[in-house]
Amino acid sequence: MRAAVLSLAATLAGALLVLLAPPALAHTSLSGADPAPGARVDRLDRLRLEFAGLVAPDAPRAIALVGPDGSRWDDGAVALDGERALVSGVAPRLPAAGEYTVRWCAVGPDGHEQRGGYVFTYTGPVDPTAVPGAAAGEVSCAAHAPADTGRSPAGWLIGGVIVVAVTGALVAGVLGRRRSVRRA
Question: Which ranges constitute the DSSP H helices of the chain?
């Protein structure tokens, strides 16, 4: 009887761990870029970022190219290129040579937003009369996300509480029966 109780408790504890375990780590991280971090380039047609992990295809994403003046010089359109890369266009003319910062965010299959940035140097032709696309700000996938994703941790919490309560009731019931059998 004791073995049955321990087996039942172990099974329920295992189920509880599976139900309440955090999602597998499927964060994505930058593994390559064109232009590369620290690179010196004299031509810039687009930005291409490659990731070590998958990029969620239906999730929001963003890439910003911030110039030496603090203005954005990307075209605002970010496309998925395969399963692990994002591509964004840049302004047809850049205003100055110098350090440009790429800021990005992407969402992995686990639903977690990853952000990063790096700097490269542009040495190509410039047009001081070029007009930026937008003012630079923090790059966030949340700004591009739908208002309500329909996901809530409440379901997991309620499920966990129910599993713990059922486990406790079963163990208490089995132990209570065992004590009443000994007394008889």
Answer: 2-20, 154-183
| pTM for the model | 0.64
Q: Phi, psi (5° rounding) for residue 160? A: -65, -40
Tens digits of per-residue pLDDT, 140-150?
776 544 434 44
Q: Hunting for tokens 């686990």 — which residue is that?
A: 110
Residues 26/180, Cβ–Cβ less than 8 Å = no
CA 17 to chain centre: 23
Query: How many Cα atoms within 13 Å fall on the side-chain side of residue 124?
Result: 13
Q: By three-state DSSP, how is residue 166 classified? A: helix
Class of domain 30-144: mainly beta
Instruction: Please report the pLDDT score of residue 26 as a whole number.
Output: 53
Cα gap 119→102, rounded to integer Å: 6
For residues 116 and 86, is the Cβ–Cβ distance under 8 A? no
Distance of CA 124 to the CA centre of its chain: 34
Q: Per-residue pLDDT tens for 48-91? A: 999 999 999 989 999 999 999 899 999 888 999 999 999 999 99
Question: Do the beta carbons of residue 74 and residue 47 sit within 8 Å?
Answer: yes
Angle between helices 2-20 and 154-183 (to 10 degrees): 170
